[in-house]
Amino acid sequence: MRSAPLRLRQASLTRHARQRAFLLSCILGITACATQEIPEEPATLPPLPTGFEDLRWVPLSPRSPAGEAVFIEWQSDSLRLRGHSGCNSFGAGYRTQTESRTVGSATGKLETDIIYGTRKACPPGVMEAEQSLFKQLSEVRSYRLSGYALRLDDEAGNTVLRFTLDKSRTASTAP
């Protein structure tokens, strides 16, 4: 049987060994960090919009089952909207009347004309999502902008589509 002082000395050595191992790992970690390149800071967010036009918006719902980029842009100079449904490109005329506007917030009336588009054959799930998007766009009567979020509402004030600003592009830089 070991004596109590021997057990204390072993416990003390084990604690010191753990402390040394911890210090060594800290030193190695700092050295490793010093030799690696520090990544550039991410791009800053664009300023809060004062309206929804001339910006690229991506829907929060519906999403394209095919995984292709879905977006919509309202172009103020031509009063035309254009977008991609995940399968086909589309467009339409639109009318808007802003009721209130501040930085990062706006509300108003919004109506679209008949939507036209390309007619590529799409997988069944994608085609249904596209038709749903077109139907919902035709029901829109007003909009609410809050920060980087855009909600499109029907006549009764129910939200039919929700978008978020595509912070990497604006309509003027989009192809």
Structural class: alpha+beta
User: Which term fits the overall shape?
Assistant: globular
Task: Give a quick account of the main beta sheet: strands, pairing sense, barrel closure.
Answer: 8 strands, antiparallel, barrel
How are the strands of the biggest sheet laid out side by side? Answer: 1-2-3-4-5-7-8-9
How many beta-strand runs?
Answer: 9
Strand content: 35-45%
Quickly give the CATH architecture of the largest domain. Answer: Beta Barrel
> Total helix count?
2
By CATH, the topology of the largest domain is: Lipocalin
Mean pLDDT over the residues: 77
Elements, N to C (H/E): HEEEEEEHEEE
- As residue ranges, the low-confidence spans are 28-42
CATH class of the largest domain: Mainly Beta
Radius of gyration: 28 Å
Q: In total, how many domains does the architecture comprise?
A: 2
Helix content: 25-40%
Question: Could you give the distance between the termini?
Answer: 82 Å
Walk me through the structure.
This protein has 175 residues and is an alpha+beta fold. The protein has 2 domains: 1-37; 55-170, Beta Barrel (Lipocalin), CATH 2.40.128.270. The protein is built from 2 helices and 9 strands. The chain has an 8-stranded antiparallel β-barrel. β7 (142-146) and β8 (149-153) form a beta hairpin. The longest helix has 32 residues, at 4-35. The chain is globular. Residues 28-42 have low confidence and may be disordered.
Main attributes of the structure:
single chain; 175 residues; alpha+beta; Lipocalin; 2 domains; eight-stranded antiparallel beta barrel; 2 helices; 27% helix; 36% strand; globular
